[in-house]
């Protein structure tokens, strides 16, 4: 029996929840904002399923060679014996789906669709992650600069963002991706295409996050703790890195998670239009574009399409959950 | 008001100038940085069998040897006052706005664009009517019945909608409704009849593209409307409106929705502006010969005047759409003052 009055000294200012849970000192300790958000996120089952799927996809992408070795055939290997030479479509029903070819084979060449989807995850995730990193990097640097320094710096950067937002993005991306020759900047083949796509997608998306960061920085700059730091003699860089940036982590994190799925769709769209990573390297968008040309084999579109859908959905679910967890005011 | 519009129009012209410069730079600087010569670039336009001599002549004729600034100046001059082009078979006058002649087909670009515009416009308009109606309607209903079965189902479908790439939805839709697995009542990809020829056939051909395109956009709009409505319906002025005895219908539409409409109009302006500049993916998936397909073809052919033309037109639409959106703000939200 412990009467409320016997609560140890250290717990007097703790939240009631901590008092109820008792004398255990660990439970009384305050939780950081990050911990609170993490607890909220853990309770959100939908978001956790999204996170699980994302983790699963990353593992697939990383271990693609192993998975293909165990469950499939090399993604570029032709299996013309599976194909009807007359009609150019797989001989067996359901596009040749069997234990040997889990998702069947593609028309004309008879390549293993399962392996191609697995390898497609590599390109898709790699480009989406790095492009997001690039946008977030540029957007954060320019957004903080504009918001913190204000004046003509802000005017120039804000106008720049306006110009970017008025561009017909997709057309520009296609133009850029289409105009670069097969060897350039000391790179060639897939390495060139992948870096090019990362650059294009990342470079065209930064104004969106730039605007958010700028707006947040503008309001943070006027807050009391920044004034306090300044009156203690802190200079610009210290205030930016120690006072402003830590407060920007939440919006940046939310926005990044929601930017990844749109980048996956962007990459798939470019590949679909034939300006992405060049065939025969397997990409989800490229497989859909092949499928669009051959209407008689619907299954050929289904697996890469579902792969895109599931990946994007998982990121959207996780992103939504993350936003709810980090931003409790937005009680949707 | 008038000064505001004039200032915005000047801003729009500046914006278009920048867009044209960047496009020009992309198509001339990037290949040069990557190591192409004027002759090499010109050789693309004279066929595979052309000798170095012919390519050199072509480079001269296409003006590839002039400094970039001169080439760009010539282009802008063409837009403003027209230009005269010499393609071997006599000098031809190209009236303003002259967007140049295709390097490959040697046809003027501007009439081409005007031919393609109705297709994209039909596609975008029809889809926009569908998606705004559906998206906003579903969003409002979802917000009013928050947590109900309708709300949850609608939001799951909406989330699926924003996660599906349109070229995949299009393939599946064509397969299911048009190529006879199991239905075949919708028009096949690539069919298009102008509205002047036959209204029913026009609508019939565009039905599937409309629905597919609208599905994707409606999903986003439903999510946005729902979030906005949830926010405004908790405002004090909604309680005031209810307290003074207004009918619920009027409260929702006149007070709630109107307050939630501002972000939706912003997004709509951007979306619609981008779309009439070329619904690249939808047009490719359904083989519609609109501006988007024109752009893709032009880029594949590396036909600079065509690319410049279509990009400028697309940017024009985005800029104009943004201007209209800003003017509409003042109508929807009386607090906004234009100055």
Automatic annotation (TrEMBL), chain A:
Protein's cellular compartments: Cell membrane
Principal location: membrane
PROSITE patterns associated with the record: ABC_TM1
ABC transmembrane type-1 domain location: 121-319
Annotated GO CC locations: plasma membrane
Bilayer disposition of the protein: Multi-pass membrane protein
The entry's keywords: Cell membrane, Membrane, Transmembrane, Transmembrane helix, Transport
Membrane-spanning ranges: 46-68, 123-148, 160-180, 192-213, 252-277, 297-319
Biological process, per Gene Ontology: transmembrane transport
UniProt entry tagged with the keyword Transmembrane: yes
Presence of keyword Protein biosynthesis: no
Domain of life of the organism encoding this protein: Bacteria
Protein family (similarity comment): Belongs to the binding-protein-dependent transport system permease family.
Protein name per Swiss-Prot or TrEMBL: Peptide/nickel transport system permease protein/oligopeptide transport system permease protein
